[in-house]
Amino acid sequence: xxxxxxxxxxxxxxxxxxxxxxxxxxxxxxxxxxxxxxxxxxxxxxxxxxxxxxxxxxxxxxxxxxxxxxxxxxxxxxxxxxxxxxxxxxxxxxxxxxxxxxxxxxxxxxxxxxxxxxxxxxxxxxxxxxxxxxxxxxxxxxxxxxxxxxxxxxxxxxxxxxxxxxxxxxxxxxxxxxxxxxxxxxxxxxxxxxxxxxxxxxxxxxxxxxxxxxxxxxxxxxxxxxxxxxxxxxxxxxxxxxxxxxxxxxxxxxxxxxxxxxxxxxxxxxxxxxxxxxxxxxxxxxxxx
Length: 289
Prior knowledge:
This protein is an alpha/beta fold. It has helices at 56-69, 93-106, 139-146, 162-173, 200-209, 218-222, 225-238, 264-287; strands at 2-5, 8-11, 33-35, 38-40, 45-49, 73-75, 110-113, 128-131, 152-155, 180-184, 214-216, 242-246.
């Protein structure tokens, strides 16, 4: 069987073997995903912003702050999948509108979560669509995104193996959308000293198996702002091409995930350390070949 993908033709025997996978490094060694001029896969890119867009003034202030700290993109939740139906669910369409205002002022591309294909009409001004952990195996949503052109930031399901994470990307790729960045945010296990278990081995595995860029989310993995820096640096050491970090100007008063959000001041320090580490690792790697 001959398959066509992104102007490349390759052979498939129709079986369930690794060589048939569009995410495989056997198909392509490396992909760069362009998100409105931010080229993920080159250097270390940073998406930063609040867990939730709470109001217009708040997201504008945070967008200015994260840009000054060195972030490449603004993140923020408008449609929020929460564990409890009584928790803050986000501002919905208004949240998207405020994010677009922040983009227009700062020039930072937007990454925000989409939960349902029916909401897609609200996302015209959004640059990158995020699929959260709870929707990582929402196959109808994944198939829908495979038919769109917008880049997708795809998180692993909290109970998924690394291989299952890659397979969820295949749903999008096989639909014709090759603009996928994988984001590792930890898994749920027996360890409870952190919110989730940040198994950097999953990042290493993914880097060895796929040409897609890898992002890491140390905020959700740790659940603690004092652990975010260490987890971010560990992720970069494991090969992450991008970090997504939750930032709030007043974390203690955040309407969601208050414990894991850091300040813009802390973000600046983390970005400086993470990019310095990335440069050293890249320079060392070039010397080996």
